[in-house]
Amino acid sequence: SNLRQVIGDRDATLPFLQVTRQTVRFNTDSDHWLDVAALTALLDAGAAQGDEAGDVGDAPLEDLRQAVSLYRADFLDGLSLRDCPAFEEWSLLHRERFRLRAIDALRRLVTGHEGRGEYDRALSYARRWVELSPLDRGAEARLVVGPILAVEVQIRVARPVIVSRTVQDVD
Could you give the C-alpha distances from 131 to 24, 37, 92, 99, 103, in angstroms and in order? Predict the structure, then answer.
């Protein structure tokens, strides 16, 4: 009863929850926006295009950006049901699945932005990747490689200007 009041279920045309003596189930026919559904749709759309090497187009990159912005914490983080191991197992499996998919999205964003020469953006996603997966060597490497690539590009751009000025000074 209190839960229905908090989520506004009493005022909904179709209730958000379907409740029996044994179960509480989300009513997918209700008028709702569900973050997990949006996250899944964006991850699916981002993963459906591009390849594993990181060749990701603009549309999938935008889907992946939106997905990782939705992923703020682990699935049902902190929610536990006492004496309900089936729920604990179910939530743990979903938590890990969403975490792995978010990490993959971050990896693809890093690779995609590096491929476009957008090293600052790549670095910000690499930092988030390390936060989610601190023992991942690939994520750590991207934190080191990204700034090196950015400097390398700056040197390549500046080299002709420096050479030109040096030649002018010699003349």
Answer: 34, 23, 19, 11, 10
Q: Are 42 and 100 in contact (CB under 8 A)?
A: no
Contact 46, 60 (CB under 8 A): yes
- What are the contacts of 52-58 at 24+ separation with CB within 8 A? 53/111, 54/108, 54/111, 54/112, 54/114, 54/115, 55/112, 55/115, 56/108, 56/109, 56/111, 56/112, 56/115
pTM of the model: 0.74
Phi first, then psi: give them for residue 50, nearest 5 degrees: 90, 180
Cβ contacts of 167 within 8 Å, gap of 6 or more? none
Give the span between the Cα atoms of 159 and 38, in whole angstroms: 46
- Cross-strand bridge partners of residue 114: none
Tell me the C-alpha distance between 73 and 99, whole Å: 9
Q: Render pLDDT for 93-138 as a digit per residue (tens, 0 to 9).
A: 999 999 999 999 999 999 999 888 888 899 999 999 999 999 988 8
